[in-house]
UniProtKB/TrEMBL annotation:
Belongs to the PEP-utilizing enzyme family. NCBIfam families: PTS_I_fam. Residues 149-220 form the PEP-utilising enzyme mobile domain. It is found in: Cytoplasm. Its cofactor is Mg(2+). Residues 249-520 form the PEP-utilising enzyme C-terminal domain. Keywords: Cytoplasm, Kinase, Magnesium, Metal-binding, Phosphotransferase system, Pyruvate, Sugar transport, Transferase, Transport. This is Phosphoenolpyruvate-protein phosphotransferase. Its EC number is 2.7.3.9.
Length: 549
């Protein structure tokens, strides 16, 4: 029995066998073709047919959105133009793997150049190419493994495309060596209600296929080869947590009745049903860039109006906070971030990128104003990465010019907390993005497993900035919410409320646990816990101090 630790995402526990995600294939060698070109051509043809058949079978089993994605991939494997191109390359002396790899790369470049929908499909070709080359090489295809038995997926990290094809009936938990608690892998795991532990140092050296493991997301631990007593204890704890999560759905409040609205983070209208079911009192963060990740040209006003109206319609009479496009760093958008930057997290991202392409921002605000008029949701619009009062004034002025009623700023850059009083004179509200606020306060890349320990919103430096924002909000009489992943940690949610935060927004799957925890403390107790955490000298000490009686 051996235990590893990382950063937990969610509160669940899973007990199952480990299944490892294959590493991506190394590119083929440039060795010239030594075999007969016609025979190699036949071998590639067979590999393509087998990959297409495999993708079709997966598509039929997957259903829903994943089915369409996989069927499209199967068609890409059957395209006769690919096979013709492979033949030309074989005749030119390339080996079979290299010829296939390059044929797909040329096809991908062609689609990218076409722009629009075709360009969005270009990256899917890489996955097909990897599958075909894996078959030629006689090794397992990369991508999410398939199993008839439930399993714990162990990977270096997962791409969003991998999670699209995850079989949720079989995948009980995710464990990754890379990635921090706020990486988008973690966010996706949370949105699918999968327990996960990320940033587990030494994971890939320790975990083997078929090994039994316990994953405890709340504790942030992975126990490999647990004994039977540990397994029994984990199963009992799992039952207890499931029972707590199914308590009645009520509006968020503290034990003394102080309301703390609990809102949902969404990426599109598809996330709305889960949010409504979890009792979300509205949307605290609609990440609009999720709709356009992969697009090579800016979406039209009409496309955007339709997408935003869909989301707003799902929350009649409720507050919906929409963030304008947050392009750059971990969420690049080709039509907003075209320059190469050494440090994209410190580059032209968020409001900076939008200002540099103001027509794109104007189009988005126009579409949001149209959605506001078309629905009876209470629309709030905010900009990411606002640093100071001048940027706030710029965005608020533009928002009002476009007819928006409530315009605010996200607090993600530490300077905004230091200048919170000035910013709240101008903004109608502030929403704290603790993921980026932590990244920038601690100078720790949120996507890097090796610094995941520093990427901890419990750090008193981050909590002190939250307090500055909470105090400024109270003085100005304006709302200050939290929409970063910190809001989804029940113990931290209490501390945030104690620091003056007025609402919490999180993945729908986290709402039940946060609701249950808030109901156990009064406002006074929340403030006491916050004061103890603020006085601590490390994230771990803050966690322990808040928990101490
Ligand atoms: C954040 O930074 O906390 C946030 C909510 O935005 P994102 O995670 O999308 O960067
Ligand atoms: Mg952010």
């Amino acid at each position: 029995m051996s235990a590893l630790s990382g950063v937990g995402v969610g509160r669940g526990i899973a007990v199952a066998k480990v299944l490892r995600m294959p590493e991506p294939l190394a590119p083929p060698s440039d060795e010239p073709l030594e075999a007969d070109a016609a025979a190699e051509h036949e071998r590639v043809r067979e590999a393509l047919a087998a990959v297409a058949a495999d993708l079709d079978a997966r598509a039929a089993a997957a259903g829903g959105d994943a089915q369409a994605v996989l069927e499209a991939a199967s068609l890409m494997a059957q395209d006769p133009a690919i096979l013709d191109d492979v033949r030309t390359r074989l005749d030119g002396g390339a080996n079979a793997e290299r010829a296939t790899w390059d044929a797909y790369a040329a096809f991908r470049d062609m689609l990218t150049a076409m722009g629009g929908y075709m360009a969005e499909r270009a990256t899917d070709l890489d996955d097909v190419a990897q599958r075909v080359v894996a078959r030629l090489r006689g090794v397992p295809a990369p991508g999410v493994p398939v199993s008839d038995e439930p399993f714990i997926l162990v990977a270096r990290d997962l791409a969003p495309a991998d999670t699209a094809t995850l079989d949720l009936d079989k995948t009980l938990a995710l464990v990754t060596q890379d990635g921090g608690p706020t990486s988008h892998t973690a966010i996706l795991a949370r949105s699918k209600s999968l327990p996960a532990v990320v940033g587990v140092v030494g994971l890939l050296a320790a975990a083997a296929d078929g090994q039994r493991a316990i994953v405890d997301a709340k504790a942030g631990t992975v126990v490999l080869d647990p004994d039977d007593a540990s397994v029994a204890a984990a199963r009992a704890e799992r039952e207890m947590r499931l029972a707590a999560a199914s308590a009645p759905v009520t509006p968020g409040a503290l034990a003394d009745g102080t309301p703390v609205p609990l809102m949902a983070n969404v990426g599109s209208a598809k996330d709305a049903p889960a949010a409504v079911e979890a009792g979300a009192e509205g949307v605290g963060l609609f990440r609009t860039e999720f709709l356009f990740l992969g697009a090579s040209t800016a979406p039209t006003v009409e496309q955007q109006t339709a997408a935003y109206t869909d989301v707003l319609r799902a929350f009649p009479g409720k507050k919906v906070v929409v963030r304008v496009l947050d392009a750059g760093a971990d969420k690049p958008l080709a039509f907003l971030n075209d320059a190469h930057e050494e440090n994209p997290a410190l580059g032209l991202r968020g409001i900076r990128a939008l200002r540099a392409s103001e027509q794109i921002l104007r189009d988005q605000l126009t579409a949001l104003a149209a959605a506001q008029e078309a629905t009876d949701a209470d629309l709030f619009v905010m900009a990411p990465m606002i640093a100071d009062r001048e940027e706030t004034e710029y965005f608020v002025r533009l928002g009002r010019e476009m007819g928006l009623r409530s315009v605010g700023a996200m607090a993600e850059v530490p300077s905004i907390a230091v200048l919170a009083d000035q910013v709240l004179e101008v903004a109608d509200f502030v929403s704290i993005g603790t993921n980026d606020l932590t990244q920038y306060t601690m100078a720790a890349d949120r996507q890097l497993g090796s610094v995941a320990a520093l990427q901890d919103p419990w750090h008193p430096a981050v909590l002190r900035l939250v307090k500055m924002l909470g105090d400024a909000g109270a003085a100005a009489g304006k709302p200050v919410g939290v929409c970063g992943e910190a809001a989804a940690d029940p113990a931290l949610a209490v501390v945030l409320v104690g620091l003056g935060v007025t609402s919490l927004s999180m993945s729908a799957s986290a709402i039940a646990d946060v609701r249950a925890e808030l109901l156990t403390v009064t406002r006074e107790e929340a403030r006491e816990r916050a004061a103890r955490a603020l006085a601590a000298s490390s994230a771990a000490a803050a966690r322990a101090a808040a928990a101490a009686r």
